[in-house]
Amino acid sequence: MIATAHALLEPLALLILLREKTNFVELAFERRLSEIYALARGAYNAHLDDYAIAEIPPAKTYDPVVPGWRQKRVENPATYWWQGITRGRLDPAIEVCINREANRAATVDEFESRYLDLFNRPDDSRHKSLGLFCNPIYNFRPEDRPIFWRILLCQLLIYRRISKRSRVPGEVAMSAALDFDHEDIDQLRRSNAIGDGLFESSISAAVDYTNRILVRNE
C-alpha cells in the first residue's frame, strides 16, 4: 500500500515542484517543456476527473455520494466506492510526498515514515487527505474499481509520453495523439485477469481522455 501510494504521488510531487520553479513566460516558448508540463498536469487532473472519466463511452454507472454509501460500496464497489479525490484533499496528500527541506520528492523511506506517523494521528487533517487518496487502492481489483482502473491507464499513457518526449529534441514536434503500444497491452493482459469487455473499454476510455490533453495545450 505504502509503496503504491508513493509511486502514484511521486510524479505529482515533481509536478508541484516544477510548477513552483517554472517561469511560465519562458514555458510558452519552450515546446518540449510546455508539452511535458501539460501532460503532467493531465496526470494530476485525472484524479479529480473521476466522474468525467466514468462518463466516457462506454459509460460506467458511478454514484459514490449517496445515502447509505458505506453499505452500498461493500455490496457494489464498482458503482459506490469513491475512486477519485477532491483538489482540497489531493494537494495535502501530494505534500506528504515532498521533502521541503531538500526541495525534492520524498524517498520511499521518507514517505513511509510520514505515512506511518500520520496513520497514528487521525486528528491531523493530512491523515484524512492521505487516506482518501489511498481509498481506491485498498483491496484494488479492476472489476471493483473500474473508474480508478481507467485513471491508472490514463496515467500510464501520460507518463510513457513524458518519458518519450524528454528524450526527443525540443525542436522536434510529436503527434498530439497518445496510444498504447503492443508491449504495454500484452503486459497489462498478462498481469490483470480481467474480462475482454472491461479491458477493451478501459483502454478505449484512457485513450479518449488522454488525447484531449495536448490538443488543449496547442
Question: Can you give a write-up of this model?
Answer:
The N and C termini lie far apart (37 Å). The longest helix is centred in the last third of the chain and has 21 residues, at 146-166. The chain is 65% helix and 2% strand. The chain has a two-stranded antiparallel sheet with strand order 1-2. It is mostly helical. The protein is built from 13 helices and 2 strands, in the order H-H-H-H-H-H-H-E-E-H-H-H-H-H-H.
Summarize the helices and strands and which ones pair or pack.
Layout: H1 2-21, H2 24-27, H3 31-48, H4 50-55, H5 69-75, H6 77-80, H7 87-96, E1 98-99, E2 104-105, H8 108-119, H9 125-134, H10 146-166, H11 182-191, H12 196-210, H13 213-217
Antiparallel strand pairs: 1-2
Helix pairs in contact: 1-3, 3-10, 7-9, 10-12
Q: Spans of 5+ residues with little confidence (pLDDT < 50)?
A: none
Give the number of DSSP strands. 2
Tell me the strand order in the biggest sheet.
Answer: 1-2
Shape: globular
Mean pLDDT: 91
| Assembly status | single chain
Q: Roughly how much helix do the residues carry, as a percent range?
A: 55-70%
Q: What can be said about this structure in brief?
A:
This protein has helices at residues 2-21, 24-27, 31-48, 50-55, 69-75, 77-80, 87-96, 108-119, 125-134, 146-166, 182-191, 196-210, 213-217, and strands spanning 98-99, 104-105. It is mostly helical and 218 residues long.
